[in-house]
Write a structure and sequence with these properties.
Structural class of chain A: mainly alpha
CATH class of chain C: Alpha Beta
CATH topology of chain C: Rossmann fold
Oligomer: heterotrimer
CATH architecture of chain C: 3-Layer(aba) Sandwich
Number of helices of chain C: 5
Largest sheet of chain C: 5 strands, parallel
Number of strands of chain A: 8
Radius of gyration of chain A: 26 Å
Distance between the termini of chain C: 19 Å
Strand order of the largest sheet of chain A: 3-4-5
Number of helices of chain A: 24
Strand content of chain A: 5-15%
Shape of chain A: globular
Shape of chain C: globular
Number of strands of chain C: 7
Helix content of chain A: 55-70%
Strand order of the largest sheet of chain C: 2-1-3-5-7
Order of helices and strands of chain C: HEHEEEHEHEEH
Radius of gyration of chain C: 14 Å
Number of domains of chain C: 1
Distance between the termini of chain A: 57 Å
Chains: A mainly alpha (635), B mainly alpha (313), C alpha/beta (146)
Largest sheet of chain A: 3 strands, antiparallel
Structural class of chain C: alpha/beta
Helix content of chain C: 25-40%
Amino acid sequence: MALAGYVLAILLGAGGAAVGGAGMLGHVWHVSWPWLVPLGGLALEMDRLGGLFVALVGATSVPVSIYAVGYAGRERRGVLAYLVFVAAMLLVPVAANTMTFAIAWELMSLASYLMVVQHRTRESAHAGWVYAVMTHAALACWLAGMLLVGAWTGSARFADWAAPMSALDAGARSLAWALLAAGFLVKAGAVPAHVWLPLAHPAAPSHVSALMSGVMLKLGVYGVVRASFTWLGPAPVWWGATLLLLGAVAAVSGVLYALADRDLQRLLAYSSVENVGIVLIGVGAALAFQASAAGPLALVALVAALYHVVNHAAFKSLLFMAAGGVVRATGTRDLEAMGGLVHRMPWTAAAFFLGAAAIAALPPLNGFVSEWLMFQALLQNVRLPMPALNLVFTVAIAALALTGGLAVACFVKAYGIAFLALPRTESAASAREMPGSMRLGMAVAALACVALAVGATGVVATLAPIAETLVPDAASVSTRGGLTVDVSSGFATLSMPAVAIALVGAFLLPFLALTLARARPSPRRYETWGCGRLLQTARMEYTATAFANPFTRVFDFVYRPVARLDIDAHPDSRFFVQRIAYDNAPRFVVDEWLYRPAGRALRALARRAAAIQSGSPNRYLAYVLAALLLLLVLT
Amino acid sequence: MIADAVMALLHVIVVGAGAPLLVGSLRTLKARLTGRRGAPVWQPYLDLRKLFGKTPVVSVTTSWVFRATPYVLAATTVVAALAAPVLSSRPPLGFAGIILVMYLFLLGTFFLALAGLDAGSAFGGMGSSRAVAVAALAEPTVILAVFALSLQASTTNLGGVVERLAGDPQLALNPAHLLAFAAFFIVMLAEAGRLPVDNPATHLELTMIHEAMVLEYSGRYLALVEWTSAMKLLLFLTLLANLFFPWGVPHVRTPVAILLGTAALVGKLAVLTTALAVLETSIAKLRLFRVPELLAGSFALALLSVTAVFLLR
Amino acid sequence: MERLGAQLARQVRARFGRSLHIRQVDAGSCNGCELEITGLTGPHYDLERFGLHFVASPRHADCLLVTGPVTRNMAEALRHTYNATPDPKLVIAAGDCAGDGGIFAGSYAVVGGVSAIVPVDALIRGCPPSPARLLAGLLDALGRRR
């Protein structure tokens, strides 16, 4: 039963990938059932952008569902929700009017909510509660935006919006944009609306996390892209600048919190915040360029953003799958209870390693290509003669560079502490490798990471026409000789196959040279050098907390840690210490400054409002009468 | 095609063979400045030859990461050498820009930091943590400093930057250029593990950064690690020399031009090496948690440089 | 024996002749020898000019320079250090204590000379040996001094 469900999901994903792929390449179509539901009925419309996201959802759910066969096993709970989740995500990008979009989006949110609370623990209940609140606050935002636009334009159909919206004044359009963007950014996990992410991902089963992080967040980005580029007419510069700054903040703070975290899955969740930030930098840059009549540059930025969306789906789903295997095998999410898994779970370790290198944007993997493109787009801001905007761009460039460096640190920590050296606990020492289907799922995602890098020219050639539907302008990202990506005719070029070949060649070079020179005596194995100490234990290893310490010190204005030191001394002498407890946990500024006060205000308001609810039927009848009178007066 | 292959070979030979000489001369210069005679300048070659002949000892707790890392370091450094405008402004990987070069070095750092953790000794972990911290904090400065250059040259291609800047007669007087140079010089010190960020000659584990990560390496693995770190220093000095003083870098690939270019490079490197030796003998190592302040300072310089370009355009 | 010795000297010179990295191991010394060894790195003796260099890890070393009578607490550490050093390697015992325990010989806390724990290739006598003597001994061990 469970198996059949996941096989169905694989087929659904493959079908979605095929249909989406066709749409992405220009095979557009349109269907509608106006009688099915009120308010415009159901309508689906495939265009290139929608096709890209449908293909992305489909292609990602294939390896993830293969993985789920082994991961979820015979567990029946959640199978139906998983199927609905995948199907709803496939529908969101092709929804053509408000009603269809709302139905698909709500199905997606509810199905993912059910899977977040699936384990029925206190922790998952809390995560689910926060997720539900955030999602529905977001729903209120974007639905209000859509209804406003619908009222102004007199149509619920998205395609009818652009022309009448362009005629409206900037204030109204900006109000609609703010509502729509705020709603979608919550789903995308942008700071400060990211709070549900680090709670929901550890709570949900890993294949669900892989899809939520890999593609569901991207549908939030999809919403932002649609709203900003096609629905509301020409965008003013400040929309782009806002997204740029939001993206920069999300990228840096996401990776900083990931770096400080000990929980493997929460670390990956924060890293998703970071990557969504990078995508938003690209989208914001594209928007700002377009508003400044620099269409070719907007195209570069948008291609970079879409490329990163695709890449993140590949490596984040890979990382969540590998992390799920590790958590399953060790029974813990705490990095400091793992260690040495590379010897016990070589396949999972290899998969995580590849994903870590890819997400840290290291060449010759896919993350590097999209970050490289992003840099090239941002660096060209000099062509805009607007000093204030140039400054915003410079901040984004610095943020992106810092993010790149911090991501390397973060994934060195994640891989090094979890997989290398000695096991830190019994359960880590007795961990077993994952079954075949889980390995197969990871292998597919890993191959995608390599293919998306080496085939960079193909990806760019596919994404450029999609971006051109949003930024109709001269082609500025081209491919030369089939192997080289060329940005803005010679501003920057990159040939990933050449980099890959050069790296592999240069890797083998010293190998061959040493073999030829007969200078490769096989190494002698002996204990780690520890200054002559008698035995090595895992307690001597560097911990995740210690590893992150330089960063928590340098960035303490972000973490605002509260250091607590408890020392229990022997009752007879304070020099004999029995126990030391040290805690240096980061505080979350957003929680403290935004959500707690908001929650308090809401509760206070609710207490006031409770006075209305007296329980007396006469009083309620009086309310009804008052409401009717008010309506009569008003109309 | 053949010209490319010959250029590639020349790059590998010049960078590979020149790096030990550079480090040897630097050490000898520092010894002379402190009143010692010091080892001969070719000492690093002797050290490397000896190391390649030894039987390495590898810790029992390590994985493939530990053994692959020296080769990966070699690969990233060699590819970076092929991408950098060392002998002419048309390097073999002519499409490359600074972003590729920096991320190649980050790939090396990624592996080396993992190798530091692999043996499970506290020293290795300490070195890894510090090394990635320095690398991460240096990253924005490098990108912004080169951004300032590419703003003036309107390309991020390294060879293109060299060619366009060489044609600018007022380059040396441009405040943006000087600020970017200062910023890049500071991050060079950090990236190549020189004083005041890291002391390459330290024996004290608690002050180490690079050295702590490689404490476990021996034999040919150590030889590769040391060799590539020398090559990294050479490459950073070359980038400083050829990007910020682009005069004398040939724009064509004729043998005479390459020869002259090599001579010019040697001259510029000699000046930079002497400056580095004088600097390293006259300052003390910074406390570890003062290093971020230094890097923040270099970031501010780079930011000023970019702002200066915007103001002066 | 004579021929064997000459052969060994040649081999050592061929391998380490102009590059020898030394790890100093204090196996229970009074630190007298260490003071003299520190003198080697200064401008007067400057052992680096011979291609000799002190390193931070036995993994990097070709030669262990062991001082002090080997105390019971340091015996195992010394053995570890020896095993941690990649082959081929030299062990040089410096100071009278390292030779046979010196004035500490026979103490309950002392195992005996360095050769009681690890094979010793050369011994530099003196209590403590002066830097000049240490240098001469090191160069002798390398077969470089006639």
